Amino acid sequence: MSRASTPILIDLSDRALASAAARRLRSLGFPAAARADDAPDAPPLPRHPSLVVADPHTAVDLWEDDSGLGPGVDVVGSTALEHHDLVVAHVLRREPELAPAPRPRAQEPASPVELVAAIEPFEAHDDGPGPVGGRWAVLVVRAFEMPRIAQRYGPAVADRLSDHLLQCVDDDLPGVHPVGFTSSRDLVVILDRQRVGRMSRRLERLAAMLASRRYGSDVTGEPEAEALSLTPLLGYATLRRGARLALAGALSATDASATRLDLEPTKAPDVLPEALVRALLDEPEPAEVVVEPARTTLPGAVVHVVGDASRRLRAGVHDALAWTRRPGVRLAWQAVGTFAVGTLVPYLAYVTFDRAGFDLTTLTYPLVVAALVVTTVAIVAESMLAVQEDPLDGVPEPEAWPRVSAVIAAYLPNESATIESTLAAFRRLDYPGELQVVLAYNTPQDLPVEEALREVAAADPRVELLRVEGSTSKAQNVNAALQVVTGEVVGVFDADHHPGPGGFQRAVRWVRAGYDVVQGHCVVRNGDASGLASVVAVEFESIYAVSHPGRARLHGFGIFGGSNGFWRADVLRAVRMRPRMLTEDIDASMRALESGARLASDPRLTSYELATTTVPQLTAQRLRWAQGWLQVSVTHLRTLLASPRLTVRQKARRDVPSGLARGVPVDLVAGPADPRLLRDARRRGLEELVHLAVRAHDPRDHSRRPAPDAHGLRARRAVGPRPQVVVLALPALGPRLHRVQERPDAHRARQGAHPRAGVASHPARRPCPRGSGPRRRAPPPGEGGLT
Fold first, then answer.
1. Which of 698, 644, 765, 659 is nearest to 44 (CA)?
2. For 140-198, how does the pLDDT look when each residue is reduced to its tens digit (9 = 90+)?
């Protein structure tokens, strides 16, 4: 056994002794490190040590605290080790007993029996969060594209990507204990839930991080190959039910994630049929066994009979009330419940308080009037702000237009009559660069229109057809389309939307201006079909031409409305659409906003759609919208209000448009990070700009002056012992803060460089080996800056 494969952690209270022992062990070939070693050349602590040398009282408690050590780690309590040579001798005596650090490889997959055996030692220490699960959880990570990558590039490339995946998971999550790979390259790890924290939120961030990474020729071995991206599928199960059921549950949850592709981690169901467990673990069918009648005492028999009677009663009640779950009956119950809550409950409250001698309207009337006044003022403000010059006047067109993609989501049984005309409208687009049109559709049976669509795809190489098997929603179709999308900007459209001219050109310019999502203007093209359609046409004009752009300027962000919305491709891959949400578009908007993305609304970016023409259609549509908005509010409101990424001004303020003031030279003026300056900047809505411009003092550079850029920006750096704050100011106003406008590329520098921006992102932690792409996160103070 090689010493290089047995990392050692020295965890002694005597720091000098621990550091000296670690240095001596490193000289002998061991990858050793000491906790709390602050030497400049000290290596990082091993994530999975083979041996831990600790003080006697520490060694006893290491399993009880937050150390994150697994059951395979040998923890030794050292006694009377007063010199580092004694520590080294102690380690060398244990060397023959040490096992190498666990590091699974995709080239060496494990069988389900071996995986279960590797998980079982954790069961003995599965004490923790009580009835919701134990301390440990089994996590399965699968890359959806892995079979296609193995077929295209070969098994060696797929194995290298799987190993990269393990490295990324190990780097990003604390308390990870790798278990192994399955034969299909699924990664199985054990998570320490005490160190991970809130499982769903932490795993969601992990999935977004893995989806944002790109793998180039250094992984594929082909210089001309385009960068690969992965869609991670995460499923997990607590270990409290046993190693076998936990592994089967995590695999089952991962299969469920594969049907959605929404990057949302899936928890295993509470109960799995035994036949499904055997199928997931490749276990043979058991031989038929004759089971003798069980013998039990009278109390046990009574409990068994009562339990069966209770289950039969619940099943009978469930079947008897099945009619109440029909769509029409459910809608009636919802209407009755809404009327009761909105009318009867307030009426009873008024009557009750009136009989008690108190007039409740003395409180409610002023509140209602105030709410109406605030609403009126907001509507007037939105209407006034919606009238503006073209915000893209100052954004130049690119010299070379990037490749763009249009994703059309369709359910063919309902949209067979319109899909051909929609494809024809997209084929008529005159985009200067490369255009890809992806029709992602689902259908329960083969339809005649599919043959016509295949003829269109054969005649036009820009059109790609993708039949999404097993899909039941638009969100699943969009997520599946991202596997074949190649554009840098992705437009999402419904099956009845005809794009207007110049739409993709405007979307590309919005992205160049620093925005991640832009929602266009949806115009109704069948307003003369019925009186209801004409009313809807007027309503849509007030929404997309007035309300959305006005609110975007008033509140600092827009929303994605489901169609005629354009996304930066890497942002859409990181956000995805969630099928469980009734309004998946609004949910995606809120999650993008939580992640720091910028959303705009452009009434000049048009598409033409069909409006509902009957009252039942309109009722079903608006009911889904109302329920969906409520669902999104319950899910995201608290998180958005508490989000550190959103400032007070962005939550309730007028947006600061992107782009420099035309023709106004701007200097970069440096000064100390005065708290009063930061408070003033926060009050004036410039806190993002100030935090963007915080730079750490570099003692090696005292004189370098960047050259003026295309906008006439000049920079000078102040030298001092403290970090400096760079503040944009108009020269005519001196150092006084003034409302200025942000550089077009400032948002990309603040969020972490875009893959094509050529700006290095901040290495928040040790990155995954090679192939790792940028993380869209704001650099902390002292490491960001204007470029």
1. 765
2. 999 999 998 999 888 998 998 998 899 888 888 877 888 999 999 999 998 887 766 67
State how far the Cα of 12 lies from the Cα of 4, in Å rounded to an integer. Answer: 22
Q: What is the DSSP string of 289-323?
A: -PPPPPP--HHHHHHHHHHHHHHHHHHHHHHHTGG
Sign of the torsion angle spanned by Cα atoms 486, 491, 493, 499: negative
Q: Could you tell me the strand order of the sheet in which 176-181 lies?
A: 176-181, 187-192, 136-143, 232-238, 266-267
Q: State the Cα–Cα distance between residues 728 and 737, nearest whole angstrom.
A: 8
- Rounded distance between C-alpha atoms, residue 745 and residue 187, angstroms: 38
pLDDT tens-place string over residues 74-89: 555 554 455 666 667 7
What pLDDT, on the 0 to 100 scale, is given for residue 205?
87
What CA–CA distances, in Å, run from 555 to 183, 398, 547, 552, 565?
A: 51, 29, 11, 6, 19
- Integer Rg of the chain from CA: 31
* C-beta of residue 547 within 8 angstroms of C-beta of residue 556: no
- Residue ranges of the alpha helices (H) in 137-242? 146-153, 155-172, 193-196, 199-212, 217-220
Q: Which helix (H) or strand (E) holds 729?
A: strand 724-729
Q: Is 8 helix (H, G, I), strand (E, B) or coil?
A: strand
How confident is the model over 709-743, as pLDDT tens digits?
Answer: 333 333 333 333 333 333 333 233 233 333 333 33
CA dist 602 and 87 (Å) reads 68
